[in-house]
Design goal:
Elements (H helix, E strand, L loop, with lengths): L4 E2 L45 E3 L2 E3 L39 E3 L12 E2 L16 E3 L30 E6 L2 E3 L4 E8 L7 E6 L2 E7 L5 E6 L5 E7 L7 E6 L7 E4 L6 E5 L4 E6 L4 E8 L2 E9 L5 E4 L5 E6 L2 E6 L7 E6 L6 E8 L4 E8 L7 E5 L5 E3 L9 E4 L5 E5 L7 E7 L5 E8 L4 E3 L6 E3 L3 E3 L5 E4 L5 E4 L5 E8 L2 E8 L12 E6 L13 E4 L5 E5 L3 E6 L6
Parallel strand pairs: 4-6, 8-14
Antiparallel strand pairs: 1-5, 2-3, 7-9, 9-12, 10-11, 10-13, 13-14, 15-42, 16-17, 17-18, 18-19, 20-21, 21-22, 22-23, 24-25, 25-26, 26-27, 28-29, 29-30, 30-31, 32-33, 33-34, 34-35, 36-37, 37-38, 38-39, 40-41, 41-42
């Protein structure tokens, strides 16, 4: 049995359905299991798009079979079908399972079929969603969800018993004409031996010792602006690109807005700010196209709580209290595709998201009751959602380093104050560090060599105290770890103040001020609310959100 991936986007023809096992009682919520390998052909001898009928089985021309459908239960969609048997690196995704509907009732659409593993020239095709079946004359339910698209990176390179496969690189954005450190994530990366050579487009990096079979850290030389496929030498099995961009030429600007934003994300590839507006339940979008900023149509998400940019920059993961969805950023209009549901919505709600460099998302929940609530780890690669061992938090808060290597999480409103937890994206271990806080603020540099907690305390990657910042309204660690951008107000108005985080300090000292940048526009934040902060990867511009505008503030002496 090969692994499978959730399909997105491409609507395929209906697939054969399989109802396996007994049905639950009306109103039951038991989810059916996944189907077995190898869908049978339809009665007329047809199969899904991209497959053909051979020996009564739907197969790729090369022989890979389509996965079977998942079984459904009363009023509940069946599980998505598993991918089929692999042949020449290709497998078809299974159909979504059907769901029975009680008398006179209607039901939900079933899950879409999973996308098969890529590998052949044609990639792989996901199965279509299963229809709902009405029992005893009841009304039929919604039609099944669309099937999966062809797998990204389905090339002839993904062939063999153990091909090295690159899924993500982090950070996936690099600055033109500057060397960078790249974390390469995938599987079987050390298949050719302990020393790994990587192809960054036509440029070779390494050999370097693999960190493990799932991670390689490599120094990449300066490259001109462009897009560079990343693969292990001797293999074309890759879904990852390094996107090298020229520094953005952004001047000061105040983007007029209304309402509070809980998070800002800067999409350097698309020159777009994404902002979470929980009150209005929408993702706001602001795009720069020299010399102007354009306010794009917001994307409405009922009960929106948070967003996170995928490690490859191609999609946003979106949370609401009961679900995780994915939005492809290069498809218009934007569509949120359901990826996972909250397994216990009566106890806690999905609250905030922190994306790591292997496609795992640290999900903090908000408990409906007093005391500690669970956190989860959602895997974008296989759609799994699992509770974090040792990851329970009380009114939890978390932040992630820009390279996605570490998440720092803590509890709030609990006595005594609890130690901060560190989630390591490499090992998936959670450890408790020495400092204890009612945690409400985390900002970590790209490699987490500088971590700012509570906007004032500066730590190392492992949370050893280094120094402090003066009281402020919000602090942001620079990507390159050398500075802190601190927002505050003086008698003349708002200011962005820059502090040197590389300056030598005595015990308890405050990092020295480098410069003060006056902000000419009014800026307001409701009492008790936090400022939403982010910056460009070259640290040349800081974005600051208040209740009445988003400020685009250039920083002098940025890396050029």
């Amino acid at each position: 049995m090969v692994a499978n991936r959730k399909g997105v986007g491409l609507l395929l023809g209906s697939a054969a359905l399989a109802l396996v096992g007994s049905c639950a009682s009306p109103g039951g919520r038991e989810r059916g299991g996944v189907g077995m390998e190898g869908n049978a052909c339809r009665a007329d001898g047809s199969c899904d798009v991209g497959l053909s009928c051979s020996n009564q089985r739907c197969v790729f021309p090369s022989g890979g079979s389509s996965g079977g459908a998942g079984a459904g239960s009363t009023s509940t969609p069946g599980g998505a079908g598993e991918s089929g048997e692999e042949a020449d690196g290709k497998s078809g995704g299974g159909a979504g399972g059907a769901a029975m509907v009680p008398e006179g009732g209607t039901g939900e659409a079933s899950s879409a079929g999973d996308t098969g593993i890529g590998g052949g020239v044609d990639g792989s095709v996901g199965g279509s969603g299963g229809a709902l079946v009405s029992s005893d004359g009841g009304a039929g339910g919604k039609s099944g969800l669309g099937g999966g698209a062809a797998a990204v990176g389905g090339t002839a390179g993904c062939v063999g018993a153990r091909p090295p496969r690159v899924r993500f690189v982090a950070p996936y954005i690099a600055l033109a004409n500057h060397p960078t450190t790249l974390i390469v994530r995938g599987k079987n990366l050390d298949a050719s031996g302990p020393l790994v050579k990587l192809n960054i487009g036509a440029t070779q990096a390494g050999p370097v010792a693999a960190d493990s079979d799932t991670q390689v850290t490599v120094q990449v030389p300066a490259l001109p602006a462009g897009r560079y496929p990343v693969s292990v030498e001797g293999s074309n099995c890759s879904e990852a690109e390094l996107v090298v961009l020229a520094p953005p030429a952004l001047g000061y600007h105040a983007i007029s807005t209304a309402g509070r934003r809980e998070r800002l994300l800067w999409d350097a590839e698309r020159q777009t700010i994404y902002a979470v507006n929980r009150t209005d339940q929408r993702i706001e979008r602001y795009r720069y196209s020299a010399p102007d900023w354009t306010t794009l149509a917001p994307f409405a998400v009922p009960d929106l709580t948070d967003i996170a940019l995928a490690p490859n920059g191609r999609s946003l993961l979106v949370s609401s209290p009961g679900a995780l969805s994915e939005v492809q950023l290069d498809e218009e209009p934007l569509v949120a595709v359901l990826r996972a549901v909250n397994p216990d919505p009566s106890t806690a709600a999905f609250d905030t998201l922190n994306m790591t460099n292997d496609g795992s998302v640290f999900v903090v929940t908000s408990s409906h009751y007093s005391g500690f609530g669970v956190s989860y780890l959602y895997d974008m690669n296989d759609g799994s959602l699992a509770r974090n061992v040792d990851g329970d938090l009380s009114s939890g808060f978390a932040g992630v380093s820009a390279d996605g290597s570490r998440v720092y999480a803590g509890s709030n409103a609990v006595s005594p104050a609890q130690p901060v937890k560190i989630f390591d994206a490499f090992s998936h271990d959670i450890v408790e560090a020495a400092p204890a806080y009612d945690l409400r603020s985390v900002s970590a540099s790209s490699n987490a060599s500088r971590v700012i907690l509570q906007d004032v305390d500066v730590y190392t990657r492992d949370l050893s105290l280094l120094g402090h910042l003066p009281p402020n309204a919000g602090a942001l660690a620079s990507f390159d770890s050398s500075r802190a951008f601190v927002f505050g107000e003086s008698g003349a108005g708002a200011q962005l103040v820059v502090h040197d985080l590389n300056a030598p300090l005595g015990v308890g000292d405050v990092y020295p001020l480098v410069k003060e940048i006056d902000v000419p526009d009014s800026f307001s934040v409701a009492s008790g609310a936090r400022i939403a902060f982010t910056g460009t990867p070259d640290d040349s511009v800081v974005f600051v959100s208040g209740d009445n505008n988003i400020l685009v503030v250039p920083v002098e002496n940025a890396q050029q």
